[in-house]
Protein 1
Amino acid sequence: MNTRKRATLYAAAAGLAGGLALVGPAQAVTTAHRTAGTTLLQHTAVHPDGFEPDSVVTRGNCKAWMNTKKINGHWNAQGLVRSWNAQCAMMLQRKHGGAWERITWYHFVRYNTQDHTGYYWDDRGYKARVCLRNIDWNDSTWHCSRGI
């Protein structure tokens, strides 16, 4: 089984185990480099079109994550939030060299519902992340994913 199929299967299994909705494939490629007659294999991550596994944030019965997609040849990010018997809040942030800035309205979900943002620019030089609060836990701070 090639690396791309294996990565897609692992991402699908992880998504099912975590109860994620709107899960897309994860992609990775392996490139071979030859140096003085020796072949070295190097794993290079490719920006996946769909679910971003490194963007998942969970707070009790609240979960937020990002999807990415190319629109007109440029990468864009979308924030998603899901609730299982809880009240949750989510926002999408972005940075371009400086501090993180909120780029969406706050999205509130409660008791087995979900919501999402639109797609926002996330191309070269930009990073996006999703931030989550569990209102039932009285979270006083936002819990954010790593920037992607």
Protein 2
Amino acid sequence: MTDAKNPFEAMMKMGQDMAKTMNPALEAFTPKGFENMMPTMPADMMEQFMGKGLNPEGLDAKTRLLLTLTGLTIQGAQAESQIRLTVRHLVEAGATKQEIAETIAQAAMFGGVPAMSKAMELATEVLDGEKED
């Protein structure tokens, strides 16, 4: 009997080998490295493009970002970079740690406790200023 690889594992190995061949530095690439290159948008710009500048009678940028965080959490907190970026932007938009924590906790009703726990861990990482590579 042979030890056949999972097709997903084989595909991932093939992609890693190809990236390593094209550029050896890509072997150590992580999404978090790319995430650190993405600047935090200034609050005024967020408000203009995502908030009241978009619709004067609508939601402000902070509320839209809180809703985004809710959706990302409900999906199982699998999009780690997106959650960290959203939390970073929420802080810039004026959200408090309490508002961010309550938003994630509320999402547990729909996404489950494991999703909430993971999102809370990612948010805490950003809020505490931890830098992991």
Protein 3
Amino acid sequence: MAAETTMTDKLFRVAVLLKGLDGAVQLIGGVLLIFLPPDIVTRFAHAVVTRDLLGPPAGSLAGHFEEAAQHFASGGSTFVIAYLIAHGVIKIGLVIGLLLKIMPLYPVALTALGLFVIFEVLRAVQTRSIALPFFAALDVVIIILVLREYLELRRRSS
């Protein structure tokens, strides 16, 4: 098989590695949240907000962050932990499959990424998040790169 030399090949590899890093951070975060008491999470969120790390303390981003931490502390932790761990495991598994060029995983990855985009857009509408549309757009770019790589691999194998 030819060596990866095109810009698209390099972008594909970088995008997939970033997705893998994102998945690893989510997995580690989910596991850590199992062991962190909820009051530590809310104190951390309050410290971030009061130090203007997310803009002004009365701003919408800071408000969303603190609201999410309070929801977590008031019993919403199971969903958050399960979501982070599942999301992380799925991403890491798909990244490994894509880097190893396991052809049957490409459609699975495209479907999973498409579902992530739908979820991110729906959550952005519900929460008025400014970050989620950015992540959805990034996932759309990754979908395009994965699709191009898949079509190229199919073309080479036939």
Protein 4
Amino acid sequence: MTPDADDRARYPTEDPAMDRTGSTPPAANPYARTRRRGPFTVVEVTGEIDLASEALLAEHLNAAAGEPGADVLVDLRRVAFFDCSGLRALCRAERRARDHGGRMRVVSEAPRTRRLLHGAGLLGRFPLLPGIPGEDM
């Protein structure tokens, strides 16, 4: 996957019923939950993100990224496994955030996350943060 390759469909898991712009975030699920922290929309990701769990993550990412001017932080500190399906969801949501005048960054200090993003050529697209700004680390 190249940094700008978002597959053919722009937001494949999106449908009008999932448009959360201006409303509450999607319900938490075993892989993702969304919360507000000051000026940030934080999507906390847990467990193993692969083809089977991608849609549950994408639901949260797409909703957060669809807010005009959103500053989205994707917290990957509790992720055990993250494959190209997760990267695809991140890329699509990041594009959506930019389309709505926002941005998306990744929270993780794990070397495996840095290696994954570097290997995919995505480190420049997803700046890594060591933690959520304003929270105790």
